[in-house]
Amino acid sequence: MEQTKLASLRRYNDISQKEMGDLIKVSEATYRNKEKGITQFKATEMFIIANHFGKKVDDIFLPPNFIKHEVSNKEVS
């Protein structure tokens, strides 16, 4: 899944893909593939990135149209 929130946040803060790659200790090409959704971010990488921007992992890595649903257990009569 393409990381549109992350890409927007990165550009807003004027941070290059190379700098982000350096942050999570991967090459620029590897980072680019992760941001495009070709490969997935590891959990540790997500936490490093969220911490860098002072945000929650969910705020960056959940899709923009993600809705949390509560499931209630209903008794069947």
TrEMBL record:
GO MF term set: DNA binding
Pfam family of the protein (one): HTH_3
Ranges of residues in domain HTH cro/C1-type: 6-60
InterPro entries, A to Z: Cro/C1-type_HTH, Lambda_DNA-bd_dom_sf
TM stretches of this protein: none
SUPFAM superfamilies in UniProt: lambda repressor-like DNA-binding domains
Protein name per Swiss-Prot or TrEMBL: Transcriptional regulator
